[in-house]
User: Fold these one by one.
Assistant:
Number 1:
Amino acid sequence: MMDVGRHPRIKLLAYSEVEEVSGYVGNFRVKVRKKARYVDEEECTACGDCVDVCPVIMPDEYQMGLSSRRAIYIPFPQAVPSSYTINIEECLGVQPIACGKCAEKCDKGCIDFDMKDEIVELEVGTIIVAVGMEVYDPTLLDEYGYTRFENVITTLEFERLVDSGGPLGGRFARPTDGRVPKRIGFIQCVGSRTERRGNSYCSNICCMNTVKDSLLLRDHYPEIDITVFYLDMRAFGKGFEDLYKRSKDAGVRYVRGLPGEVKEDPETRNLLVTVENTTAGRLEEHELDMLVLSVGLEPREDSKTVQQLLSLSRTSDGFFLESHPKLKPVDTPTRGVFLAGCAEGPKDIKESVTQASAAAARAQIILNQDKIPIEAITPMIDLDLCNFCGRCARVCPYGAIVDVDPKRKVSPRVIEAACAGCGTCSAECPVGAITQRHFGDEQFFAQLEAMLGEGPEEKIVVFACHWCSYPGGDMAGVSRLQYPPSARVIRTMCSGRTGERLILRAFALGAPMVLVSGCHFADCHYINANRWTQRRVERLWDRLERAGIRPERLQLEWISAAEGQKFARVMGELEEMRKKVTPEEIEYTKQVLAEKA
Amino acid sequence: MLYRPLGKEVIGLPEGERIGVFVCECGLNIAGSVDCEAVRDYAERLPGVALAVRNRYTCSDPGQEEIKKAIVEHHLNRVVVASCTPRLHEPTFRKCIYDVGLNPYLLEMANIREQCSWVHLHDREAATAKAKDIVKIAVARARLLEPQVEMEVPVTKAALVIGGGVAGIQAALDLADAGHQVYLVEKEPSIGGKMAQLNKTFPTMDCSI
Ligand SMILES: Cc1cc2nc3c(=O)[nH]c(=O)nc-3n(C[C@H](O)[C@H](O)[C@H](O)COP(=O)(O)OP(=O)(O)OC[C@H]3O[C@@H](n4cnc5c(N)ncnc54)[C@H](O)[C@@H]3O)c2cc1C
Ligand code: SF4
Ligand code: SF4
Ligand code: SF4
Ligand code: SF4
């Protein structure tokens, strides 16, 4: 932490938030709001003289509300930057007449009630998102009586209680009577691995955290009797199993089963825990002096802001989505933006640090170059055809098409460096004004004509995206899965490129069956371009039906790069469907579509 | 791999397409279930094709040399490689044709291994017919390929790190130690994140700050 404050090449903007990001890889422009601290960060010596005179008493967030702080405060003694801050919403003294006691007290004159928020503008080539996580809050569901029983605390509160810099100066005691507890219990997976309350995923750190806590207690308070209630203990990292074993050897009791009920004895304030011990196969009751809830990790509530600022996406659990779960774990779909730490998913410090170094290395691949090339698969807009409808700008997942205004008839402009080359804009342009370089309509038409020139009734047209469905087809090959030879695959970068014109041309040329395939929703390599694919196919189903063409002849499947099995299965299913398409149907379709054209 | 703008094609593009098709046997991986000579013969008679060659392993050095030689000797201006998935060797062959001055976007691949020979192991006739079709489709596309120039954008040599927890701190230090200017933006009055609240940390059981 200290190193950051001292490093000549790191400019720390603490108490600050990113408000605006524009530009693209290599050339981001960022606006940061540096909130007013009302204390001169450079001059403050953190002497603390001001604190004693401040009359406002607030719960101390750093100590999890277990002790108090003033309106002028430093979050913890080792804070970087080492400066006090006035929380102006709590402070009485905005008008020095009201209070202003701290300002009088500070000999160095660092306190300035007139300080204003400052907007700092930055230009950067890459961005690393390391916004971390939140800790699960058991108050909402009052889990295990957390809000009702004072002797039920969370693991984060436990961290503060045992810390020598904590509210009790490191003397561990239970909240109701300040005595060292004789029996203490830990409940695992609070807010994790549950469909009913909290989150369905495993939070990854809480098992080992409890093992750690049990050993800390053993070292300092060997007389405390410790019981851990768990579903299964996950000690998968290097050295973890050793620690777990040490904890068991030290006499910590591990009971498999999560308590069904916790009651409090109103007199002793002890906790009565009923649990089905699934190893022993019996119902047990434990009387404990104190209970610690091993709470999980959650995505931050304000993640959405950062997500929108940087055009990122998040998985269904709310954490930021990486470009590829195995091969590009710290990249994001926005080129030049990388992820590190718990922002991407629950993880421990070692993993966070590893990922941070990886993200820094990935960022340097860009920073170490003077110029970076953009793959030539960007759109070209024919402004003679364009009617300024603005659809292209609306569907672009990267906001790479700008300026277009239907009202004032302003033409769209492509920011090539921001474009990722999905081709959705060209598929969605109603007048065909957009040509994607290297993947133009004419090139696809030529493929379709070659494919369907002879014996079209025997062939199945498969549009597959470069990142998931096409490699899914490759995976079927690698696994030597056999399927009927009727499929002919056309590769697009994104399923978003498979526009109506391509699909209808295939049918017009006599294709009995057409498949559009792409990545599963969360896996789309172009943020969410495949949502447009889905809408488009749904629209086409209606249109085909109205034209008297069986909509089943157009199929939509999400096939991932790993789903070779699914690819092969779908090819088999399509072949069965193909056999049922009659020559009359094909002929009729050709006619209808020829009339329309 | 991405390509710098070429702008230095040593071969002026001759009028009309002159496509070279290279049919790979991939040992027996393709030749085992596809009659590669039949595919080559078929390819040679497709419109726009100037030359069709069969190789044992097109991706090998001798295979690539053969492509390079053919481009120069036969004035090829498009290349179709009928072999494995483009996800494997498209970069290889793009570089190969670029080396003798052909724009890398003038390459097309026909996937007759992962999506043909390997999935129709027991029907040589059907696999061969499908391979021909795949090559025909690739040639049709190749005829319309155009050289592309990749744009380059300058890079601002600075990084922004959002969040000053242990992850953000590590990323900022790494980048700064590597010589780059770093801006570290932290929402709270101090950096440190959750780790700053921890007493001791597993697995080393030492203190966190
Ligand atoms: C109770 C508990 C015990 C733990 N014990 C251990 C242990 O013993 N060993 C271990 O390895 N791990 C442990 N962990 C896990 C460890 O805390 C995390 O791995 C680590 O804190 C992750 O670091 P991070 O930088 O990704 O996120 P964080 O620590 O959450 O830091 C994120 C930072 O980003 C800031 N931020 C957020 N949003 C913005 C924004 N929009 N703009 C600017 N700044 C922003 C936050 O203020 C914060 O400072 C424990 C976790 C908990 C909850
Ligand atoms: S504001 Fe002044 S009195 Fe308060 S800690 Fe800083 S230097 Fe000391
Ligand atoms: S790490 Fe352990 S306690 Fe945490 S959610 Fe996973 S299994 Fe439950
Ligand atoms: S979608 Fe097509 S017509 Fe509409 S603004 Fe974009 S380029 Fe113009
Ligand atoms: S190709 Fe995709 S990323 Fe590029 S401008 Fe069009 S919609 Fe946007």
Number 2:
Amino acid sequence: MATLSLVDVVKTYGVVRALDHLNLTIESGELVSLLGPSGCGKTTALRSVAGFERPDSGQVLLNGKDLTPTPANKRDMGMVFQAYSLFPNMTAAQNIAFGLKLRKRPGSETRKRADELLTLVGLQGRADRYPHQLSGGQQQRVALARALAFEPSVLLLDEPLSALDAQVRVQLRDEIRRLQKEVGITTLFVTHDQEEALSISDRVGVMNNGQLEQLASPAQLYRHPTTEFVAGFVGTINRLPVSVRDATTVAYGDVVLGCNASALPAGAAGLLLMRPEVLSVRALEGSAPHTSLGGTVRAHSFLGPVARVEVITTSGDLLICDLPSRDADALVPGTSVSVHVAATDATVVAR
Amino acid sequence: MGQVSGDGATRARPRPPIGKVLWIVAGVLFLLGPLVATFFSSINYNQLGYRFTAYSNIVSSRALRGPLWLSFQIAVLTAALSFALMLPTVFWLHLKVPKARPIIETISILPYVIPPIVLVVGISQLTRGWPEWLIGKPFFLVPIYVVTCLPFLFRALDAGMRSIDVMTLTEAARGLGATWRQVITKVIMPNLRTSILGGTFLALAVVLGEFTIASLLLFKTFPIYLTEVGQNEAQGAAALSLLSFGFSWGFLLLLNSVGKRVGSGASLDIAPRVGR
Ligand SMILES: Nc1ncnc2c1ncn2[C@@H]1O[C@H](COP(=O)(O)OP(=O)(O)OP(=O)(O)O)[C@@H](O)[C@H]1O
Ligand SMILES: [Mg+2]
């Protein structure tokens, strides 16, 4: 069991600040994903943990022990790479056994463990295949088995699925999660695919420009993003410019909307963030009540179970609303509507 | 559709072989022609007809053994020293400073473009006053030949490392607990089998054929002996060059079979040994 922490880690390449005072703690047995756009520093963070990059400052701690002076081969971390990384001259079983042989485990134990892991990743009977005789997905399974074989205290995965096609990707990501839980290993998973991050993680860290914007459970991250960047990066979000009235209300023009605004002082300019599916839309007779948003339907698209309705508010902002498609039939373009949001479903962040 | 492609297949099948056979014949003639010609001149004693005297002389000759054995030792030492120096260097180049590769590549070609005579003059200048026991021994040729082989070995190793993902394989091995030495011996080298063999062969060919430097430094290596014999007896020289050619090939085949065993079986064979 191991707790992994990055403390104030800085890493620069020339003028590029790949990691800008990054702080992150992964609890024992937890799977944390780092999610973020290309170039935000995810790989650099992972490589600093693995010992392939030396941070300019800051520390990587394993169970509170500083790993800075420890070279990569002594860090006791299993790693799966984005690129295919199996040793081409070794069979699947030999690849898996590599870490154990380096640790001078007896041959019989090594062989037994390799078989065990091959079964665990669903490749029993493929022990004697060379990497070039395996599909991409199978190679990554072997790579995962190889990383777990020597029972490391931390598992690191850098976009291990991005070279695979969509179907295999979904299947393998679920399997990684299953194995991770089964083994109970502390895991750092890097990806730029939000669905991947949300579906398999205990917590997701969204990175931007070398910093961690928010670290939270997938549901928390999705429902209550704390920054505009996180809101925009994960899923679809509606943003309305508002000003904070007090801790529980904000004003959008004349409309007063309930929400938790306690993080911002009264009078501050904020952005009200709302997911499309939390908005309810009703065709309007007369004028809108001053606790909901008035507007006009601009477009309506039928997506099967839901319909996506685009509403332009009276102040000219766009709201995307996902409704059960049954309820949305009447909302044809041009319809005057009122849009309502529950106070608990809206978040305010500083503008 | 089916018919058309079926037709195409049957019509196409007999055609390429004629072209291929022609190319193969031309290639074989080109490669074997000189060898066959050399062979005939080695057994052709004009008025006396054809006989294998040259070969029996060689086999029984004591004078040959010294130079041949010397050249063989120098060749092996040269290849070994070259790889000991170049393998880690080229590995490091690929891993840490890939941007410097073109520069190093250019530098590595220098020994090839500098005439041997210039090299020898430079070396004599450099080693003037060095003790006799060091520069008077034929093994003094080894470091010089290492330099001479540099262009070939660099290219062989460079091509090999470009064909594998050095960075990812290295990091994978490091992450699994390998020391730098283990990375090179257990991961990089087994995957560079072809280029190491090729490089060894080139080094052997260079050393077993190098005349100028050895002659100027007054060491009696195999090529020097060969020319001496050739001045006295044409058949003997032809027979010797054929034999040295066969010798290089034989050595290569030997290395190849050894390399194959080490390359493929290694990881499993090592297991019990490491375990003990
Ligand atoms: N070896 C390097 N030399 C110079 N700059 C580098 C190096 N490695 C990374 N960088 C820079 O550091 C920044 C962060 O890179 P990093 O690879 O960590 O991003 P990432 O989040 O993994 O992106 P991606 O999703 O594209 O993999 C980028 O701007 C990148 O250009
Ligand atoms: Mg990356």
